[in-house]
Design brief:
The protein is mainly α and 240 residues long. The chain is built from nine helices and four strands, in the order ααβαβαββααααα. It has helices at 3-10, 15-41, 69-73, 97-100, 128-131, 140-167, 169-189, 193-221, 226-239, and strands at residues 47-49, 89-91, 111-113, 117-119. A two-stranded antiparallel ribbon has the order 1-4. A two-stranded antiparallel sheet has the order 2-3. It is found in: Membrane. GO terms for molecular function: transmembrane transporter activity. The chain crosses the membrane at residues 20-43, 140-160, 172-189, 201-218.
Amino acid sequence: MSHDDVFMRLGDFGKYQKIIYFLICLTSIICAFHKLAGVFLLAKHDYRCLLPFEDPNSNAIEYELKGNIKHLAYPKDTLSDKYVSYNCRYYNVDYSEKYLNQSEPFLRNGRRPCEHYVYDESKYLNSAVTEWNMVCGRSFMAAASDALFMSGVLVGSIVFGQLSDKYGRQPTFFSSLVIQMTFGILAGIEQEYFTYTASRFVVGGTTSGVFLVTYVIAMEMEGGILAPSLNIEYIDHGAI
């Protein structure tokens, strides 16, 4: 007796299958949250160099500068005609009261690199980018963290696929959920970049362990002509 013959006798999509299908669809929502979390965890802020006369320990520093200070402190982009600090430098001058009251910047001393930064908090209050100053020469760290998360998704699809074939769907599925929850919490509270990135790598792997294994569970428990349409619906649900 084949797999489809069993479903013909028991029913293709009965009450039990509907309950299990609904529950495993809920787990795809968790995977979606983890995959979309990088948009907010690594949110990019506008920023500028902290100027020498500003106190780095003060909470009263504003991103927007008053008066003519921006013109006196930062180079002007000749293409956009805007003052920017994305080149991560500011004019190397003595920012005395006399200098800040003049009209034109002093250019003979060249520019100096930023040591501290002021971030625009109008859209996002903070993120991993502001936590570890992943801007200027450290901007690659944000891209690396995001890339390692997706590498985890790739590795997880291979590892958890093999584990589910060897040890069964349910043990692999529940193990993936536990690991995902543990390292998801760790990534949220971690204060150090490398541990955070490693945690995100593991979480990326477990999203494959959860999503792909539950997809196979959904496919194997359904029979008849409903199986293809329900599995396409499951994939669409995860994508949404």
